[in-house]
Amino acid sequence: MTEAPAYDTTSFVDLIDAFRDLQETLCLVAPPPAATLELTAAVADVTKRLKEFEAPEGHRVARDREMGSDVHPMLVKYEATDTSDTSLAGTVTFNHAHMGGGGAVHGGVIPMLFDDLLGMFVSRRGQPNSRTAFLNVNYRSVTPVLRALRVDARIEKIEGRKTFVTGTISDGYLVCAEAEALFVRLLPGQP
Ligand SMILES: CCCCCCCCCCCC(=O)SCCNC(=O)CCNC(=O)[C@H](O)C(C)(C)COP(=O)(O)OP(=O)(O)OC[C@H]1O[C@@H](n2cnc3c(N)ncnc32)[C@H](O)[C@@H]1OP(=O)(O)O
């Protein structure tokens, strides 16, 4: 029998959302030194409190497989609205924490979203326990922050352990970025 997790995922999602809010707010402020010192101590207190709940790998909420990016502080949150066996459509809204400059999403954040989006989709509809072998991203036009954008993923073909997948981020009819990737299913015992 599988042991029920000791945590409550819904309230943890609230904690992660509060953290995302903190991250974004950090990107928007210019506090004076005294306030910065005070805030640093407050954040250190929160970290100290969280450390009381450290858990071994496999028991940490941030890696809850069912919840995906919702429970991970680094990953970009997206919503899948329509999935079939070979395709996924959804939405993503990047915020100020994801901005590189000039209202554009940072060029490193976009591959992170694709790796997670495509990797999760491959795990659920292709071959579970796969790892990214390559991920090629083309930046076709500026990816704006603070707008609901469309994401698409498609499994192109599966050959043995290999799943070939593509993805796009679009702003209306405009393609902002596109990706093609290969995920390779790990062999039993492969680290
Ligand atoms: C439910 C929610 C879950 C939740 C799931 C979580 C979702 C998030 C997913 C995130 C995934 C990651 O970021 S993973 C982290 C980033 N990736 C990595 O660290 C991977 C590092 N690389 C590796 O570990 C390895 O190179 C592997 C596992 C990818 C492949 O090694 P291998 O197992 O020894 O296999 P190997 O024989 O080399 O290759 C197998 C086949 O793939 C081909 N192949 C391998 N690499 C490449 C390549 N770069 N380009 C072209 N082809 C390649 C080979 O030619 C071969 O084809 P043929 O001769 O058979 O035709």
UniProtKB/TrEMBL annotation:
The reactions it catalyses are: hexadecanoyl-CoA + H2O = hexadecanoate + CoA + H(+); (5Z,8Z,11Z,14Z)-eicosatetraenoyl-CoA + H2O = (5Z,8Z,11Z,14Z)-eicosatetraenoate + CoA + H(+); decanoyl-CoA + H2O = decanoate + CoA + H(+); (9Z)-octadecenoyl-CoA + H2O = (9Z)-octadecenoate + CoA + H(+)
Identify this protein by name: Acyl-coenzyme A thioesterase THEM4
Organism, scientific name: Gordonia insulae
**Keyword annotations from UniProtKB, A to Z:** Apoptosis, Cell membrane, Cell projection, Cytoplasm, Fatty acid metabolism, Hydrolase, Lipid metabolism, Membrane, Transit peptide
For biological process, the GO terms are: fatty acid metabolic process
Pfam families given in the database record = 4HBT
UniProt record similarity statement: Belongs to the THEM4/THEM5 thioesterase family.
The protein's superkingdom reads Bacteria
Taking every annotated instance into account, which residue ranges of this chain make up the domain Thioesterase?
102-171
